[in-house]
Sequence to fold (624 residues):
Amino acid sequence: MAVAESTEAEAQTERAPAKRPNRLFRNLNAKIASIPMVATALLIFVGCTAWTIYHSFTKSRLLPAPDKWVGLDQYERLWNTRRWLVSIENLAIYGICSLILSLVIGFTLAALLDRKIRGEAVFRTIFLYPFALSFIVTGLVWQWILNPQFGIQGVVQRWGWESFTFDPLNNADIVIYGILIAGIWQGSGFIMIIMLAGLRGIDEDIWKATRVEGIPAWKTYILVIIPMMRPIFVTALVLIASGIIKVYDLVVAQTSGGPGIASEVPAKYVIEKMFQAQNLGQGFAASTMMLLSVLIVLIPWAYLEFGGKRRD
Amino acid sequence: MTDATATYTGPHGPKPKRRLSPTNIMLYGTLFVVAVYYLLPLYVMIVTSLKGMPEIRLGNVFAPPVEVTFEPWVKAWAEACTGINCDGLSRGFWNSVQILVPSVILSIAVASVNGYALANWKFKGSEVFFTILIFGAFIPYQVMIYPIVILLREAGEGISAVTGTNFRLMGSIWGLVIVHTIFGMPILTLLFRNYFTSVPEELFKAARVDGAGFWGIYFRIMLPMSLPIFVVAIILQVTGIWNDFLFGVIYTKPDTYPMTVQLNNIVNSVQGVKEYNVNMAATLLTGLVPLVIYFVSGKLFVRGIAAGAVKG
Fold:
């Protein structure tokens, strides 16, 4: 920050004696260099988002129809579609479970790794490698492991427990948990890394003090360490939440939304309405609902995180 | 909190007392069991891809191969079918390479210059655009996907009309390259901005006194100094773009589909007998590029995702 401000001041003093140049041409090279950023910010992030929101109030079918205004019709139809309701329900279950599990697993693993163990680097490498893999690869591998005939269910049955059933991918009631297993496998290592960075940032003196007081380690974690790591938890929370809303490829690869429509998610609903069902209006309305849910998470966070700083 | 990994000074937890205390057994036991869960899918992928189909039908997913065969790998690479095309996953691989190289170069070139302008050459409004860019990273892609289709189509037609060629952005790899550049911009710009801000002010001032301008300082001072951050950015982009599915499926056509899309089409195709060994060989092949990058780059990969996670 300091660098940039002083440069600006410097640039101004440098130019002061000369004839006052056009404001627009001051620092011209930096402005030219920033054209891609400005274009992305305005045209894509603001422009395209506004375009989609506007068109969600129109009767667009195969082509966008900006002049066929229908008000909230698309939203009314959306919330009366069973498939959308199933999608929302799945997202809620997946979201809550993956939020809790990611935080608990991520923190527990980080805390275990932080206890001066041997081979920390090896464990860390093992826990994080799934994060390097795509959701497609993740989904396909778990589809195979959960295969009822040859996978976990088949193995246990062949061991002699004939009545054992564990077939989440073909059972509409629990299919979302089958996807959850894969999602947690892929993403929890990432949360562990963030938590570990947080734990490493905690002063050694805290541990010394609690040891002198004779407080057991687990109590120190719950009463002292976790409250101290609040910002890290908030960051992790925002990251997990913004990842949950994007869940798409994992479902496509693992179940294709099946059995039936039991594992549909909102992101998939949008893509299918836009590019397969030729029902653009529904796609726009559904994607606007996705945006709305992101804002519900993001605005309070942004307010807490940056609200104070902005004022001064 | 600009660089989470900078705090990796060593374990901070309470010191374990005896080597074989019950706590230690619990600790290593837990870590070991969890490590098995994380490694299981990789193991299953490898053993399945080395078995023949008869052996898969008789055994279970966890059994090691009795007779090792590399035929599934050959078949996955050169013969696996998507629809009527039976030239294997190799086509997807080369498509992905063709998408990857220009996308990585363009996105990093654009973002590094952006970050440099934001750190050292601030102008009025630059911070506003940067804020929009960062918040834009949280907008679900589904909201912007359709308007971008229109923009790419119009821009491609415009270029065709001006140059008198039959150039297309929509459906070609160049459209996808632009999309990757756009959506990689927030995180990469943040990465570079934070890095350039930390470069000592004196260096920049000295260069200014010597009469170096915007591009002079960028190419002769900043670029040579920031090679590590470029490596981090390359790792981040290569894994991210290689693993992308959503943009690939929307902005390219079947003959230019990237590897992830083709993989999903091969494995989840409904026609023919399921060849699980070929499927797993194909899955492993697709995951190989990011896995190799992950295991080779080690700490730099962690640094990349941590920089992406913790906003500055």
About this structure: The CA atoms of residues 106 and 192 of chain A lie 4 Å apart. The mean pLDDT of chain A is 86. Chain A has two domains: 2-73, 75-311. Chain A touches chain B through 113 residues (CB under 8 Å).
